[in-house]
Design goal:
mainly alpha, 2 domains, 7 helices, about 65% helix, elongated
């Protein structure tokens, strides 16, 4: 009789292991298909960018102007469909790479700054803000790898 009990215990243990392996494997596959969550916190972004900027740019831009430039950048990303409205548990469904040309972004930010009464003393400040903001995106895991030079030609 104890041998029969031992056999049942072994069968139950094997069945439990198989069931657990199937469930863990299924969940791992599901989570692999979901884009990782990156949380953009505006106040944190402003602080990060302000600290990342060279001293000359820090001296010329007020925190309010910096915050507006970052908001313009986020609006630009939204117009390029790079800031989707629904990102919670969104599947990674990007079929073609999206390449951002920093030149078009800088031009957009300069135009928006002028339209909104932000006096930019030096265009280099906007370039520095873009570089710092992209560094923030990279720090929170919100950007992919840099594009190959061949992919950038004609991007905008």
């Amino acid at each position: 009789m104890p041998t029969v009990t031992f056999v049942y215990v072994v069968i139950a243990a094997v069945a439990t292991f198989v069931l657990a392996a199937v469930v863990v494997g299924r969940e791992a596959r599901r989570l692999d298909a979901v884009a990782p969550r990156s949380v953009y916190i505006p106040d944190e972004a402003v602080e990060f960018v302000a600290e990342y900027l060279p001293e000359a740019s820090q001296a010329r831009l007020t925190p309010a102007e910096l915050e507006q430039l970052l908001r313009f950048h986020m609006q630009w990303l939204h117009t390029k469909d790079l800031q989707p409205a629904n990102v919670i548990d969104r599947r990674q469904d990007i079929t073609t790479p999206v390449v951002i040309s920093e030149d078009s972004l800088v031009a957009y930010l300069l135009g928006e700054a002028e339209r909104n009464g932000i006096e930019i003393l030096d265009d280099v400040d906007v370039v520095n803000v873009v570089d710092a903001h992209l560094a923030y995106f990279e720090a929170i895991g919100a950007v992919g790898p840099r594009a190959a030079p061949d992919d950038v030609i004609g991007a905008g």
